[in-house]
């Protein structure tokens, strides 16, 4: 509990006016020893809550905090406005539909819709890395290559991205090319990259131009031949646009 209070005290030092602070400034504001502050800063930087500006040895709040805040908001608004369109998409496509948000490190599935009502009674909060899922790549494709690279740097790896099957894209250059294609056509395809034998088509959900999540249809690869992908993509993108409009009302 004492450590959590120290963590909270460090984060509370940052304001709209003081967005970048040095170790000395944070120690002065919290009244904590510099050694203790240094440990807190290192831990917060490790999990993405803080980013260090090497040019002036200052720290600023990390993207992950913003993303986690977005998860909370999306969990409330997105689920409410997406449920009916997602159910319609599940009925139209005959496939499982997932609504996801991004927490700054992983894609978080917050809603699932299937044709069989019983399957919708158990909705698990699932976290998956973004480089190998349809929803994750859809969200990554809305970012610049530099921002996408910074987010992927948080994934545990030895330089290559984590592999989950023979089709997982582990090379960052190849992933960048794939995201360029996703960006141009407006949707992403998980070609058995997360789970062998499963394909997925995902599209980003925007509110006033800002990406707040993604939606996808997922099913056995045998039901997702190449010829069917554009048809599913049109359904997914139309549903994403409808959810976005609902969120803006």
From TrEMBL:
Keywords per UniProt: DNA-binding, Transcription, Transcription regulation
IclR-ED domain mapped to chain residues: 64-249
GO molecular function annotations of the record: DNA binding; DNA-binding transcription factor activity
GO terms classed as biological process: negative regulation of DNA-templated transcription
Keyword S-adenosyl-L-methionine on entry: no
Keyword Nuclease set for record: no
Family annotation (SMART domains): HTH_ICLR (SM00346)
Residues annotated as domain HTH iclR-type: 1-63
Domain of life: Bacteria
PANTHER family: HELIX-TURN-HELIX TRANSCRIPTIONAL REGULATOR, ICLR FAMILY, HTH-TYPE TRANSCRIPTIONAL REGULATOR RV1719
Protein name, per record: Transcriptional regulator, IclR family
Classification of source organism: Bacteria, Pseudomonadati, Pseudomonadota, Alphaproteobacteria, Rhodospirillales
């Amino acid at each position: 509990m004492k450590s959590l209070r120290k963590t909270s005290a460090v984060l509370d030092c940052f304001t709209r006016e003081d967005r970048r602070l040095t170790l000395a400034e944070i120690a002065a504001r919290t009244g904590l020893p510099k050694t203790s502050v240094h440990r807190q800063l290192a831990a917060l930087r490790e999990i993405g809550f803080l980013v260090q500006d090497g040019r002036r040895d200052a720290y600023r709040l990390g993207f992950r905090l913003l993303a986690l805040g977005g998860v909370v908001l999306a969990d409330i608004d997105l689920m409410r406005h997406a449920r009916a369109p997602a159910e319609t998409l599940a009925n139209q496509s005959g496939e499982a539909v997932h609504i996801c948000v991004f927490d700054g490190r992983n894609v978080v599935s917050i809603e699932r819709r299937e044709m069989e009502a019983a399957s919708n009674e158990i909705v698990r909060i699932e976290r998956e890395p973004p480089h190998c899922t349809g929803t994750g790549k859809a969200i990554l494709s809305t970012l610049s290559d530099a921002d996408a690279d910074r987010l992927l740097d948080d994934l545990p790896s030895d330089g290559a991205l984590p592999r989950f099957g023979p089709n997982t894209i582990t090379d960052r250059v190849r992933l960048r090319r794939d995201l360029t294609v996703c960006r141009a056509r407006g949707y992403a395809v998980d070609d058995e990259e997360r789970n062998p034998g499963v394909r997925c088509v995902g599209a980003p959900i925007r509110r006033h131009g800002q990406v707040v999540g993604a939606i996808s249809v997922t099913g056995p690869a045998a039901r997702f031949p190449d010829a069917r992908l554009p048809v599913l993509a049109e359904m997914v993108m139309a549903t994403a646009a409808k959810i976005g409009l609902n969120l803006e009302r």
